[in-house]
Amino acid sequence: MAVLEDGRASEKRSGDDGDDLPIFNAENLQSNMKSIYYSRSFLSIIGGVVAGIWGFTGLMGFVFYFLIMATASLGFVAKAKFSTHKYFDCRNRILMDGFLGGLMSFVLFWTFAYDIVHIF
């Protein structure tokens, strides 16, 4: 992951109070978000195949998906060394963005793998 803060020491955005606001590099933020999106998509596909092979049906498959996404969120936070403000502008970006985005891929590969292994 790329660090978002620009190399410049501090640029004051508000004149009187003296508080320094961090300057974010938009390219690094976009790169970090892309890597999270691709990781979640990949985990959705792999999780769907695993859920299908293990024979999960109904609600158990969806619980498995949410466990995978929660584990992925924890992994992303751990990779950022628990200081998400260095790599993302908001903590919700790493925890919630794309959480439901891979659900369709998960269901597609879940049903495909289940059909191949348990029906045919």
Automatic annotation (TrEMBL):
<keyword id="KW-0812">Transmembrane</keyword>
<dbReference type="Pfam" id="PF07019">
    <property type="entry name" value="EMC6"/>
</dbReference>
<feature type="region of interest" description="Disordered">
    <location>
        <begin position="1"/>
        <end position="21"/>
    </location>
</feature>
<feature type="compositionally biased region" description="Basic and acidic residues">
    <location>
        <begin position="1"/>
        <end position="16"/>
    </location>
</feature>
<keyword id="KW-0256">Endoplasmic reticulum</keyword>
<dbReference type="GO" id="GO:0034975">
    <property type="term" value="P:protein folding in endoplasmic reticulum"/>
</dbReference>
<dbReference type="InterPro" id="IPR008504">
    <property type="entry name" value="Emc6"/>
</dbReference>
<keyword id="KW-1133">Transmembrane helix</keyword>
<feature type="transmembrane region" description="Helical">
    <location>
        <begin position="37"/>
        <end position="56"/>
    </location>
</feature>
<dbReference type="GO" id="GO:0072546">
    <property type="term" value="C:EMC complex"/>
</dbReference>
<comment type="similarity">
    <text>Belongs to the EMC6 family.</text>
</comment>
<protein>
    <recommendedName>
        <fullName>ER membrane protein complex subunit 6</fullName>
    </recommendedName>
</protein>
<feature type="transmembrane region" description="Helical">
    <location>
        <begin position="62"/>
        <end position="82"/>
    </location>
</feature>
<feature type="transmembrane region" description="Helical">
    <location>
        <begin position="94"/>
        <end position="114"/>
    </location>
</feature>
<dbReference type="InterPro" id="IPR029008">
    <property type="entry name" value="EMC6-like"/>
</dbReference>
<keyword id="KW-0472">Membrane</keyword>
<dbReference type="GO" id="GO:0000045">
    <property type="term" value="P:autophagosome assembly"/>
</dbReference>
